[in-house]
DNA sequence: GCAATTCCGGACATCTATTGTCCAGGTTGT
DNA sequence: ACAACCTGGACAATAGATGTCCGGAATTGC
């Protein structure tokens, strides 16, 4: 999986803690010392997927497009990593002299088994929201939200 | 995910239908017109993982190391693709001036959420055996097992 | 013992996807 | 008008996946 997913989720948490205000890419990148131009690509992808809203111009930047309870990890992963399955059946069963045209019309059982597993994965991701992850962080590290807010205020 | 996984599972099915007999890489590759040397790498990995047993020398080759009911898709995927998680937390939360050493000792909530989803995926894969997939194929294509056996007999 | 067959694993080449940079253009606040 | 900021495309660098080749060891049949 794309490393940008990690950047994206962390950035979503930060944006959620910050609130309404828009934050430019450079600020979000500086927080974790990430390459700004590349992080920007991930944020653009999130904006295209309507996870983030973007605002051009001075005082512009990104903010969450909806409340964190309405953003699932699946939304973020799909935006960054695409929604193609990890296992893609290339139908090798159709290759070779032993292959039988009648067989191709039936679905590939291996593909079906893999898709079933991936579906379980997607369901888990879709079942966890950004708000859930925020709550987990706040439980083990109650100081984090304030710390984040202050850092982004100070360096505004 | 590695394309070799598809080759590996198909080959396991074929070996299961063939039975006790060992089959050399070249035969298994010819069945799907796959590059033999590269398929051999996947089979080696399966042998290291004790999914297949290998026999050197003339009349040698590969066969299943255990009955297909005892080989899960997770076994095969882990052998070929490795058991590193798709999402790997690089701890970017530790980077940047705002990071707090006290936070690092607590597990990363994002990592935990991702691992939870991957666990569901692994559980699904571990719940499906090669025998299960064989049964699915045989239900929609009853002729396949015999066809496979004959092809490997004829070209022996 | 010898030759043929086959697995084993490392070295290497090639191709593709990921990661990262840069720039020219558009939008917006002051 | 100017500066801050996003957008998207082009491009380079790197890493990983894919594929080939070869020397060595094990095993079989003669």
UniProtKB/TrEMBL annotation, chains A, B:
<protein>
    <submittedName>
        <fullName>Rrf2 family protein</fullName>
    </submittedName>
</protein>
<dbReference type="InterPro" id="IPR000944">
    <property type="entry name" value="Tscrpt_reg_Rrf2"/>
</dbReference>
<dbReference type="Pfam" id="PF02082">
    <property type="entry name" value="Rrf2"/>
</dbReference>
<dbReference type="GO" id="GO:0005829">
    <property type="term" value="C:cytosol"/>
</dbReference>
<dbReference type="InterPro" id="IPR036388">
    <property type="entry name" value="WH-like_DNA-bd_sf"/>
</dbReference>
<dbReference type="InterPro" id="IPR036390">
    <property type="entry name" value="WH_DNA-bd_sf"/>
</dbReference>
<dbReference type="GO" id="GO:0003700">
    <property type="term" value="F:DNA-binding transcription factor activity"/>
</dbReference>
